[in-house]
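Quick note —
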Amino acid sequence: MSGLKDDLRARFNSSVEELKTMRDEIKLKIHLGSMDAKKRWEQVEPQLGKIEQEIEAVGQGAYKAAGEMLDETRVAFKKLLDDLKSK
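Predicted structure written out below.
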């Protein structure tokens, strides 16, 4: 069971790092971008902190909730980043 927990933790850590990289790119583009992008960012950025808190909780239920939040946040970050790149 510990191996599974370690694998899940590694997956989550990798996903969080991916989101942090996307976050940094989004912040840079927003700094140079529009008020609409800033407003959208303010709506999705807090999700990353929530994910990190869920992972710290380390319970099996937390992994499920964090996984769902990771997926939702990745989609929101990717959509915002794609929109910013197309402008």
